[in-house]
Amino acid sequence: MKAIAVRPGTPNSVHLADIPMPELASIPNGLGVKVQVLQVGVDATDREINDGLYGNPPAGFDYLVLGHEVFGRVIEVGPAVRKVKPGDHVSCTVRRPGSSIYDQIGRNDITNDEVYYERGINLLHGFLTEYFVDHEEFIVRIPDSMKHIGVLAEPASVVAKGLEQAWLAQQRLQVWRPQTAWVLGAGQIGLLATIMLRLRGLDVITFARQPAPGNIKAEIVTATGAQYVSTAETSLTSISLSQKNQPDVIFEATGSSQTAFKAMQFLGRNGVLIWTSVTGGTHTASIPADQINLQWVLGNKLLLGTVNGNNRHFEIGITDMALAEAMYPCLLSRILTTRIPGLSHFAEAIQLLVNGKDLKIVVEVASND
Ligand code: BGC
Ligand code: ZN
Predict the structure, then answer these.
(1) Measured from the CB, is residue 4 less than 6 Å from ligand 1?
(2) Residue range(s) defining the domain that contains residue 261
(3) Is residue 369 in a domain?
(4) N or C: which end of the chain has fewer CB within 10 A?
(5) Are 107 and 310 in contact (CB under 8 A)?
(6) Residues 172, 280: one domain?
(7) From the alpha carbon of 54, which atom of ligand 1 is closest?
């Protein structure tokens, strides 16, 4: 069967590969689930892997099948599977357990191991292919009524985890009533964060480079009642000076480590800054270190790095997406701006990713009707 693969470490090595059909029996104890892939979303992580900056092939392979944001339909299940049945729509988690205590308790998203296993990213083949098989533990059911946005389940899990961890960590304060949030970046993660923070009742300002007119990102942001600010027109500093209150939450999702550090200057007292950008490059940053250090110490501020999401975060993300459908009808599907018809058009998908103009690119592997 067809698959889209790269040779990690070699820039622009994306190619169409022919790989064997996966076997249900490869998962022991009758717990395998075989899924027909319908859609796969691609994101900046795929671009970084194709740039040769990130990712590794599985042991014994010189290539890695890409794709970690999957939506599909179950076609076969092992005799012991309880969670799903043929015909069900599903997504699948990305990370697989290593050996740390966290992996053993189902929290491989916070593994202590140096080496981590992620489908389509690190040491495990991904989902940009026609069928995959996995253990039922990692399969996540998506309601049929959400099949038009099911491909957003993985990125939604990443945002859901970041917010859940921040809210848990803020219990350190005994009383925390966050009112304002800044979201930096309006890619899929920034937009999902905007929506989920609005669902939690916060006033949100979302910052991104592009000016607002004719910009779908700005339209999605403002449809939730959040404010969109183009940093090409207005700086973070001037917004910060014009606001009564500094943000209680900053959710950083620009993909720029420099912005991640810069954000530290704007967080309010007792606030939490959530870092989600995965930056495989070698950029450095110059920051007003004394000033930030002083403000962070005197203001009891918290910096939280977060990556990946486990089954529970997928479930929170899917629940939030269902609520978003009710609050802001048809808004989520507007994130899915660009559809690539079939695996053989892989070069187009990568070219669009490299150009960076499209909000969300989805490869339509098979019909989703
Ligand atoms: C994925 C996460 C993954 C992370 C780091 C992100 O693009 O969405 O699931 O853990 O990359 O590899
Ligand atoms: Zn991703």
Answers:
(1) no
(2) 158-305
(3) no
(4) C
(5) yes
(6) yes
(7) 12
